[in-house]
Design goal:
Blueprint lengths: L7 E4 L5 H12 L3 E6 L5 H12 L3 E6 L5 H15 L4 E4 L14 H22 L10 E5 L12 H21 L5 E7 L5 H4 L3 H9 L9 H12 L10 E4 L6
Parallel strand pairs: 1-2, 1-4, 2-3, 4-5, 5-6, 6-7
Helix pairs in contact: 1-2, 1-8, 3-4, 4-5
């Protein structure tokens, strides 16, 4: 799967968690990785870049809110000007928030849909302008098992991830003639720092419902993303791969 040498990969929301590990994995496979972040403080993103370069990889950090159309276009133009093209986009930036139906507000909806749905749409639309004309581009969206599950209080989040999966299928049909594949990964509950700090009861319940008997790690997700970004997945498009140890939400 080490087929990313000389490729340029953008990973959104890559300053921490799953995104940071995906960025490191793509760099290990030879890609020049752009670590996107939105926070005012660049420290965490710069830490990811330093870790990648210390390991012999190539990376840089670029700030842009993925739900800001102007900022997204400027980011992609900056990447293309610096590197000549974009080969891989991983739409990882996203957020979770729960709310019972009677407590859902427009603000709750926009918090989730602006980042989880509008973000991938704006990034992908801007990025494909800079994909190689010769084909071979890769788009990997990050969904969630919640898109196909059923959990009280997660309706808006689940709907946002279902939209990501709809994007995946439709973009695959639209971009296939250009030689661009579009796929998604759907992680289950994953042991990021936020989850690790959560209630032990929740973690035990998750593990109990996972056939492989443990909680997922960011590396479990990153390995599948790396496969989909590589030439080994050249004949895979329009697919959503659950990366959950068998957990279905």
């Amino acid at each position: 799967m080490n087929g990313l040498t000389d490729k340029v990969a953008l990973v959104t929301g890559a300053s921490r968690g799953i995104g940071a590990v995906i960025a490191a994995r793509l760099a290990k496979d030879g890609a020049t990785v752009v670590v996107n972040y939105a926070a005012a403080a660049p420290g965490p993103a710069q830490d990811v870049v330093k870790a990648i370069t210390a390991d012999g990889g190539r990376a840089e950090a670029v700030r842009a809110s993925v739900s800001d159309e102007g900022a997204v276009r400027a980011m992609l133009e900056q990447i293309a000007a610096r590197h000549g093209r974009v080969d891989v986009v991983v739409n990882n930036a996203g957020t979770w928030a729960g709310a019972a139906l009677g407590e859902v507000t427009a603000a709750h909806y926009h918090k989730l849909f602006d980042l989880n749905v509008l973000g991938p749409l704006l990034v992908t639309a801007a990025a494909v302008r800079h994909f190689p004309a010769s084909g071979g581009g890769r788009i990997v969206n990050v969904s969630s098992v919640a898109a196909r599950g059923a959990a009280a209080g997660s309706s808006v989040y689940a709907a946002s991830k279902a939209a990501v999966e709809a994007f995946t299928r439709n973009w695959a049909a639209e971009l296939g003639p250009r030689g661009i594949t579009v796929n998604a990964v759907a992680p289950g509950t994953t042991a990021t720092e936020a989850v690790a700090a959560g209630p032990e009861e929740f973690k035990r319940a998750t593990i109990a419902r996972t056939p492989l008997g443990r909680m997922g790690t960011p590396a479990d997700v990153a390995d599948v993303v790396a496969f989909l970004a590589s030439d080994a997945a050249r004949w895979v498009t329009g697919e959503v791969i659950a990366v959950s140890g068998g957990y279905r939400g």
